Amino acid sequence: MRVVADQDVCFELYRGERLSRPLRYTNQAFSWLERISRHRTAMCVFVMATTMALRIALLPRIPVPQPRVPDEFAYLLGGETFAAGRLTNPAHPMWRHFETLMELSQPTYMSKYPPGQSLFLAIGYKLGHPWLGVWISFGLFAACLCWMLQNWVPPVYALLGTAITVARISVLGYWMNSYWGGTVAASAGCLFLGALPRLAYRVKPTDVLLASLSLVVLANTRPYEGLVMSVAAVVALVFWRVRRKRTLAEFVSMRCVLVLVVVFGAGAFWYAYYNHRVTGHALRMPYAAYFEQYQMASPWIFLPAQAPPIYRHADLRNTWEKQNEEFERKRAHPISNLKELFSIFDFFCSPLFLFPAMLALLLSRSYRLWTAAVILVCAWFGLIIESVRAPHYVAGSVGLFALLAVYGLRWLRVIGKTYGPVVVLTLVGIMCLQGRASEQGQSWETRRISPRMIATQEVMKHSGRHLILVRYSPDHIDRGDECVYNAADIDASQIVWARDMGEAKNQELIDYYRGSRKVWLYQPDTDPAELIPYESVHQ
After folding, report:
1. What is the pLDDT of residue 233?
2. Which domain holds residue 270?
3. What secondary structure letter does DSSP report for 467?
4. How far apart are the first and last CA of the chain?
5. Do 469 and 419 share a structural domain?
6. What angle do CA 283, 208, 393 make, to 5 degrees?
7. Angle made by CA atoms 82, 85, 89, in degrees to the nearest 5
């Protein structure tokens, strides 16, 4: 019996040694991460460089994206305009032929969107391709997210939080592989939220400057959503300082007031001047001007639709009438709004991502954690009352999802005791391997070649310059495949896209180009799509 007992003890000791070896290695790996993550600036640079290098390495497999969604063409128009040194473009003499979705034709020719995203695309244009601006902005987003988390949690959790968030949004996702993602707004939001805990303890002009600049960028990317989040954050900051018995008088010191006046003054002047150049009125945003000219459905779910404007093209009328029908359906069935919100929520936060976040909310009494949670709730409440939504609308608050998750990881580390590092690193690894978020058809794999790309490839087989007249079917509704988009300088383009307006008006446009372009008729709604020389139609 004694021999058997000794054998059992030896077996238990051997099994314990085998179990302790991977445990010891994992704990050592976690300790190593803790040591290297203390180099805060280096970690921000590292995550930025890694993210950008990974996408470049994937170029042979996933090439530079081609624009498809109307919003992308609008942002690209803005980027090309800025890259040419202009704030807008003069209205074209034949502008009625070039009316399209998401772009103003009157009083000037320009994107309807705020200029922030387009400014980064302009950087890309200057470097050789607009996508390079997207690539740079995604890397900046990763760095800003890491910096933000470093100001809220210990550096090792900031690194882990950056990893799981970037893996969720992904270099394979539409924020990296389109021209209408949310990385510019997300970078600004992370900078502002990262300055929050610093300002809660001590008010420094440099932190005030950083927070002010980030708010100006938010105003130039997602003005409404940025306003909602920033108001909630400022209120939280006031309560935070009062709770810590710190005076608010520091914010009205001469240096801080000077920073606020200069930054916000310059930002307000820039935005007013930009509005004036595009719409002719300093307080009239291009977005509002486009809404008045073309749309019916209100941007806010609680307001009624406006009377239908005058349309010169049946397909534009059909598209905006369809949007208005969706708007009325949402107003009549509020539950459908919640379903749409859930799909956007899923973009940022998978069930596995949600587990540590809920754990933190259940167990933690940290004022920091609950401050972040309240700001996030306010940001999402602002999204509820919008009639049209997408994940990049709330890009400014993306860092708060990561913050809630890493607080949960900290609790897992504490609860797990010796096994804590194993649990944390295993969960982080699974979350990173889980893959990117659902994108509702905007991922690079599902982006089939558009009718516009098909016609472009066919026309480019012929030399010279071209004019393509696009004739849609009478019941055409845009589903992300609009063809009529042009460069900032329409007349200098190799291919000019225009809407078919009947033989007489088409001839006016043809005469305008005085025979300098070969004219084509493109009918994308036929099966198959038909591209033929225009003169053959009237022979």
Report:
1. 95
2. 44-66+112-297+332-433
3. E
4. 108
5. no
6. 50
7. 70
